[in-house]
Amino acid sequence: MNNFDARARDWDKDMIHMDRSVAIAAALEKMVPLNDSMKALEYGAGTGILSFLLKDKFAEIVLMDSSNEMIKVCEEKVAFHETTHIKPVCIDLEKTDYDQKFDIIYNQMVLHHIDDIDAIFKKFYSLLNPGGCLVIADLFTEDGSFHEPGTKVHWGFDPNVLSTKLLALNFSNIRFTTCYVMKRDSGKEYPIFLLAAQKEIKHRHYPIYN
């Protein structure tokens, strides 16, 4: 059992996870115009907190996570809400290909757990429809104190560096903002950015940004 499998049953009990998701959902709606014909993918969905906040905004939402236990919690939530348009799938996208296409891909606090950022960006690009949007919420560059010592993660990111990577893949309309600040009992603060980028098309079917 991996760390996230072990934490799945108690994940939603931590109010920081809910507060953070509420802030990210609000910022996402401001940054990216959504419509109810869109098909969405939440990558690294965990227990699906963010997607259940956005469940009325999309025609279909795929909740993707590599943790079996997280996906089990998602399935229980789907049954509880009696919804048919939210579809949990247990897939490790770093190791497995996926052949569906989406109008928007979003994730929160996931990217710093990904070993190869360039590779996952290429996969996101391939999964997006022309004009589709990628939205990332994650830590600004930090001093390594966010996780326990020895945890193998990126110490946050400079959104400008991520933007350069995305531009090289032909994403455009890139913007970012601070969407939330996590505060620890020690008083330490960890700001979180929300970054959005659009897969380029010659003829846009609907506007991604106001």
Automatic annotation (TrEMBL):
GO terms for molecular function: trans-aconitate 2-methyltransferase activity. It is an enzyme of class 2 (transferase). Its EC number is 2.1.1.144. Keywords: Methyltransferase, Transferase. It holds the Pfam family Methyltransf_23. One of its GO terms (biological process) is methylation. This is Trans-aconitate 2-methyltransferase. It comes from mine drainage metagenome.
